[in-house]
Predict the structure.
Amino acid sequence: MDIGLLGQYLANGVMLGTMYALVAVGFTLFFGVLDVIKFSHGDVLMIGAFTGFTTYLGIVAIGIENPWVALVAVLVVSIATTAALGALIARYLVLPLKSAPPLNILLITLMLGTALREGVRLFYPDGSNPKAFPALLPTASLELGSFSLRADSVILVSAGIAVIIGLNLLINRTRLGLAIRAVAQDEETAKIMGINYTMIVLVTFAIGSGAAAFAGIMNGLYYNEVNFGMGLLLGLIGFSAAIIGGLGNIYGAILGGFLFAGLQTVGAVALPFASAYKDVFAFGVVIALMAWKPTGLIAERSSDRV
Amino acid sequence: MKDDVMKTPIPVSLPPLATGLIAVAACAIFGWLFLLAESEVAVLGLVLLAVLAGWGAQKTGLSATLGTAMHQHSGAMNGAIVASLLAVIALLGTEHFPLLMLSTMLLYLVAALGLNVQFGLTGMVNFAGAAFFGIGAYTSAVLTTHTAVPPLLILLAGGLIAALIGALLIVPVVRTAGHYSAVVTIAFGVLFKTFLEVNEVLGGPQGLMVGSMNVFGWDFNNGPVLMGHEMSFYVNYALLSSGLAILAFALTRRLERSWLGLALDSVRLDETASACFGINVVRAKVLAFTYGNILAGIAGALYGMMISFIAPNSFTFSDSLLMVSIVLLGGLGSLWGSALAAVIVVLVPEKLQILQEYRFLLFSVLVIAMLLFRPQGLLPRGVRSYFPGGRAQR
Amino acid sequence: MSSIKIENLYTAYDKADVLMDVSLAVEPGRITCLLGSNGAGKSTLIRSILGLTPPRAGRITVDGKDITGAPTHKVIGDGIACIPEGRRMFPKMTVSENLRLGAYQVRDEALIRERMERVFETFPRLAERRDQLAGTMSGGEQAMVSIGRGLMAGPRILLIDEPSLGLSPLYVKENFRIIESIRETGITVFLVEQNVRQTLAISDYGYVLSGGHLVAQGSAEDLRNDKEVYAAYFG
Amino acid sequence: MTRTASRRTVLAAALTAALSISLTTPALAKETVKLGFIGPLTGGVSNMGLGGRNSAELAVDLRNKDENAKYAYELVPLDDECKPNVGVQVATKLATNRDVAGAVTHYCSAVAMGTVDIYHKFNLPIIVWGAVLPDITYGNEYAEVHRVNGTMINQNEVAADFMVAQGYKSWAIIHDTTDYGKGHNTYFTKFLTEKGGKILGTFGVTSDQQDFTAELTKIKELNPDVVYFAGLTPLAVRIRQQMDKLGIEAEFQGVSGMKSDAYFAGLSGDLAEGTVTFLEGAPAAKLPGGAYFMSEYDKAGFGENYEAYGPFAFAAMNLLIDAVEKVGPDRKAVTKYLADVKDHESITGPISFDDHGQNTVALITKYVAQDGKWVVWEDSEYASGKRQLKHK
């Protein structure tokens, strides 16, 4: 295999890994503050993508043509809507079930995911078919032999990594982040410190969901297509990535995301059996990894959250 | 499908046993009507009735009386429940479809009981229930088409193979806990389905035919003739599924109330403490995991024969979720809860067929509502009680 | 100078009452202690004041302001701070971050820095270890962090829950000395303890809680000398 | 009231728990005959199922408006979720309902394979409207089972012929791992190899896959003339889009499952331009009945498009109704009538069933994407030479 192709695979993998990592970070945040898995995360991502798509249609309808203006509007509206949705989910579905068996939250959010998905499929105009997400980024491409790198991919990956770094700084360097970490480590003591627990939980869910919306838009801009089922597998993979990395640890989520992307790419191109086995391969490795490192690659120590 | 789905206010003065028997009879009649209900009006009416009855039973203390009845007269009550199940099957007699649904429900219950031992007792999550169910079904497909193994043995083989393949997961499942083991089973579920689809040997995405059940020359795909009337061939499957469900129920109950059950409970509550008391945590987990998979495998094997055609699409992650919902909706560790939830999870989406494409939306909203209003499950498990010999009482 | 007044308080977990008809007053500028054995309901009382376990009935006022059942962060906002039982570090945070959290509701960064310096003066050991993770410190050091954290908020009233629990006698003595010095700065202290002798030695007034009921009260000196109470409750 | 409206009513009724809904049509003197429809109404391929359901519904509604119809028809639509076990359930439900005289069933082949036994066992005459696996009709001797659409055999033979004639030499194949995608792959590979085409690589992908860059990068390395895709529209859209991302210049060739307007709705710019695909049956728009179907479908105001197989569902339902009109709502009689169907006019071309109930006039129409529409090849500017398919 020549270097160009290798570079191409690498570029694909990085793109994929960035998206997975963004989703995984959300899982890790929710798990950190509330010890819960919010399984509707993938579908919230889909809602973010559809909100962005609808915003774009609206922008075009009022006659704004500039793609950068459209992009900003799409991002702002979709992240805000999805963040609000995340906070609502936390307030009305997750917090009320805190004292119930933890699996119930998993089930209720799974069901919510189904409801969101079905809702879009049934009530969004022609929702059961894929939608063409506009290409708002410059598409100039750099061709180096068999390696083709497009400007939009570069922008997307950079933006995605910037968001992850930003989230990391937010968690580790700000007063809000301090409160989030405090809640994650010891809810009750955090309250005693005067932290408004409910508010922090809602804000965390809003942040995680906003990140999902960003991932959704990124997905749309990259694949130029969104559909009602896009969140299902992404959610599943994001969850697996968060777990193999080690739950409650942002670095773990990032590691897990890139690892999963790598496994899929390797499974599809570098292994002797048919490429359709790539998911079998990727998930098989996940199982083996869990047997080897039962608490993830970056192990969660006693109460190492966020 | 019993206990709580009670209706008609009964004077509290009746002795618990009488109340209990009337309740069981009422549930049986209700179940029979619900299975037969076709029109949206009838279905809606019955659902409303059940909700009202459940609510009423709580309010009037009827459910407490029922609890007492189950507690004090377990022999009579269990007998009555089995009898009314048989009565419902007999009443349905020639009705193919309701019998098919009833059998499906019972088989899902068997699998859910297995999961309940994993989830509810031992605290091990398993999101690959449908995969183990599927392993059973595929085992029966291969064995009925390619071998002459007696079908009753095939059921056992289904359970055994499910346990064997499950053994591959034992290391990661035992070593991990909580969400980490959730991901192991989720990964396995996805892997299983994808493998079946990609692979050609087991029929690929197309699926496989499954031979019918056959006990000593009695082919289950021919309707039995009873007093000159030909019954639906599904009566065979309904009877066998009932037998399987009753057996699984009794066995699981027995397990729950034995020393072993106590050990599993303590593993769930505190692994470290259990280890301190000399409980072999690893062995307990291996046992619970295997037990659950065997039940799922056996149920799947019979399900495959009944449905007579299987494909990877029938054993997806979302099917595993249905099984998980049965366990959680019923209440973790609650066997009767699983029974009630199996009815809801299997039957309600089917009855919602009248809503066509809207049915899953409504179903998911319903489950969300149920979880919000009854976070501990519909019939939460009572405080455990250990009885030497495992007999009765609750 | 601030005070807490508790009137006819009932608090329950699930359906079982843990506190029954408890009334007491924490006088401004003094150390008021609450004594009682394990399970008497002492910590529940603290939780009730803080709003962690809202009372079922009764009234809690701080300087005349009703805080019954208010959310915890509001109670803290009213000038109350708490040094919780068992110290409760944020184990994966550094000493400075733990201290910083003590002043979570303080917005003035300069003030926070100033207070942190004062804590480091009081506990020079912490100054050396400000970047160490709290979870990796010894029990005694954690106790210092916990007390320091309580002071970071600059409270008017400080609730201290069993500061001697699980500490070596040397540290216990040191802690009580510091608590006594806290009073000197004008902070009202409500001290909950099992350690009768040392507690009464530094307190001004005391209450005795048993089985959820208040069974005795009096000045620290009276309680010290009350043979009956001693025999009945602290045997 | 139209069916769509009544469905909404049912939903509203269920949600508000209002019991008083009236679904009864105004009193008619006619006897009511129930006809079934089964397809995937939920899940990933529900767009196809809903399109089929709407079309079948339209056939029933139109006939009910006809004064000369002997019976009043009522549609019993059921959802098989594209899962064999659910399919067996609903097939049993339908087949054991004595009021149902016949049914138009299944889009998913695996489901149809699982249910044909049931129809045979309970003697319910059915017409398959979308499933393309040959074995559904050819794998058994059941008199009850018929199919109006062609099998994937016909389609791929025409496809291979046509593409080789266009001068293409080498192919890369992507197929989804469902029965649909794998089946198409099998037959296309067979016919293409026979006709001398060269297959450079075959890639299986899962039906919910989003990212194809790994497979496509490998395809880029293989450098084929054509990328053949066997699967449905959503994946086709993603693959075409990502081919462009990676700068793959090959011609894109599809199968019947992507002959949907959603292909254009899903693709930005002119990426769709020049894609070729194949569909069984005559082009609906060209037959007199086809134009009528399209305008009536628009008028009925369904929320979803009729998609590639809607016309088949419409044709199948009409055929079934014709049978009932002729011989009455008796299952045996309907089965017997269907066995002898020869050159029955339909919007997808004439229908003639062979011994296995398979429509033998499996006309295959070639389509090319031109200016955001699927245009019949012979009418296109590509055929006339005004435009060129992609040749490297």
